[in-house]
Every structure is written in C-alpha cells, then in structure tokens.
C-alpha cells in the first residue's frame, strides 16, 4: 500500500505561455519555460498538452512561476509573449492537485 | 511495440467550468460536465486537475463540448455558470494531443 | 432622462484571438475577427484592449462568434490560431453587459 | 488639441476574479478587488464587464495586482477564489493600452 500524500492547504493553478511572431512551432520556447518552472523553489508542476498545472503553498510562488516563464522567453529573444494563468485558491479544505482528478474520477463513475 | 498513433490535423483545446453560488465543493457539477463530454461524437478528452483537454477534427466539435458542458450544469440547477476555453488550432502540421507533451519532454531534457 | 435599457437573461462572454507565427503585429487579423463578429446575428459586442466582450441571448450565438473568428483568421492564411473564451452565464437575474460595470462602479465608490 | 499620451514599453494584461461558494451575486467581492487594484503603485487599469484591463511598466506590477486581488477576497472571508489572468508582453514596440483599441478601430473601418 502506498503512503497517502499529505493534504495541505495549497494553491492550484495553470499556466500557458507562447511567443507571438516566432514561427508556428514554439516548442523550444515552451520547453524553456518548463525548465524555468523546475527552478522555482516550492513549486510542484505537471505538464499537459495545453498548459502546466502548478501547485504551491502560496500565491507568491505561483506568481514567481509566471515571472520566471516570461523571463525565460525574453532571454531567448521573444519579441512578444502571450501568457494565460488561472488560479484556484481554496481555503476551506486541504488537498493536493492529484485529489482533484481522483475525486472527479470517482464522481464520474458514480452516476453514468 | 505499440502501433504509432496516426497524426491528423486536429484542434486541441482546454475547457474548465464551474457553478458560482453552489457552494465551494463543485466536483459533482464538474463530473456532470465530464460525463457530458463523453457523449459528444468525435471528441477525445483527458481530465487534468485544472481543466479537460479536448481534441477533435474540427472546431465545431469543440464548441459542441462547451455547449454540452453548460447544458449539464443548467440541468443540475446551477444559477450562474463560469467557463473558460482555450483553443489551439494548428493548420500547418498534423499532430495529436499526446504529441505536444511528448515533444515537450524531449525538448526539456535536451538542454537542462 | 434616458430610457432604461431593457434587462433580459443574456449570456456575457469575452473572446480573444490571435495568430501564432504571423509576426508580432497581429492587428490586421484581430480586425478581421472583429468584422466577423459584426456579422453574427443576435450578437452585441464591445472591443477592449485585451479582448471583445460579447452579449447574446444564448450560448449558441456566443459559440458562433468563436467559430466565425477562427474562420476569419483561417481565410487570411493563418497557420496557427490561439483563442481564449470566458463565458459568464447567469440564469437567476436579467442584466445587460453595461449593468456589470455600472453596478461595479457604484459598489467601488461605496466603500473606499 | 489633447496632448498625445506618451508611448512606452508596457505590459498590458487582463484579470478577472470571483469567489466560488459565496452566492451568485459577487459584485461586492469584485468591487473589493478593484479597490485593491487602485492601491497598487505603478498600475493603470480600466474595468470592463468581464475583467479589468491592466497596464504597467513591468510584469512584477501586474503580478502584485493579482496578489492584491486575491488578498482582498480572502480578507472578505472568501473560502474559494477563482482568478484568470492573461498577459500580453510586447518588447519590440512602445504602446499604451488605448493604442490597441484605437489601431483596431482604424483597421476595422479600413476594409469592411
């Protein structure tokens, strides 16, 4: 049996970033942003086809991740950068990002 | 060896939906939206902690998914519904949603 | 005294769209999308520096606006198109898009 | 004749925020967030029916605005907070937020 992940009050968010005007294939830029995320202290993240899901103990860390992503694209010479961030800050219940999908799967199965 | 997934021109998108004013725990509503997605013909989707990633051969199918999600929440009695959709329509290259994360993982490893 | 705008149950939304890989100045594409919005029957809209605010009696009209915007950019030769849509569907109260900012201005002044 | 607004390299962004589980009428919370924006040094903003458009000389100020908005809702007792931010950082051209809509209006008229 796996040890249960400890549930704490965390902020879960999602970021997406790309340069505008640097060709249609922007994977190189997105990879640089992801490498930047991996250096933000206190940040856990997971990459999906449309964004990176972020988890941190406070909003400040999430916002550092946004700043680090923009910095990564600027340092590659991007002339225009578009990013999108959604934050889900929940204060009444401890949870981790995996809880959201696990709970959802249980509920989805429950009533089909 | 697994057969390679065929790469076609597809639209990849991401949707997130929740009721406003139905309490802080909205998983029951999100699950109803996910069940609605599973009934949209021609739609492939995958659930993440912050959204559902959608893939379809055309934008019409993606927009049907949005309509179906709102309908699901309305039919549960939601009085106010907030949704967010991001579409990535790429016309110069065939790909599937898995390609985006695979390519990214390769690029991220390449230069750390 | 101005006649009061009739308040109906409407869906209010916000769309933003741009091509990726068509240079950093994308105003020509955004203008084409705005012209496309002006031809969607039943749609009222207003342009802001970051998006177009949409109002319609049902979600179907909002989604037609999304489809028309993508079509406009495709017909200009865009190879990759990124769009973002947020919908606020409120079913318990009739309002128009102007009501949201008016109410907000009143509340903001109320307690500074 | 009005003096021309000076054009500088600025970051233009858009934020939307609301509590989840605090009823369907959330204007009181949105007003508190707007009041918080008005106290962020170096931030210019404008309210639309779906969001607040932000302008600042750097991303740090934009991110302070996000943090201040969440703080405002937390201090009103919100138990769950959903926010959405889109950033348009352009480095090759000086502009102000009014330029985006003005240029767009000119382009829209140009070819109908």
Question: What is the radius of gyration of chain A?
Answer: 16 Å
Report on the biggest sheet of chain A. Answer: 4 strands, antiparallel
Biggest interface, which chains?
A-B, 37 and 37 residues
Q: What is the global morphology of chain A?
A: globular
The quaternary structure here is homotetramer
* Strand-residue proportion of chain A: 25-35%
User: What is the number of helical segments of chain A per DSSP (H or I, 4+ residues)?
Assistant: 3
- Give helix % range of chain A: 25-40%
Number-wise, the strands of chain A total 4
* Poorly predicted segments of chain A: none
TL;DR?
Chain A is of the alpha+beta class and 112 residues long. Chain A has helices at 27-37, 59-75, 97-110, and strands at residues 11-19, 44-47, 52-56, 80-90.
Search tags:
homotetramer; 3 helices; 112 residues; 26% strand; alpha+beta
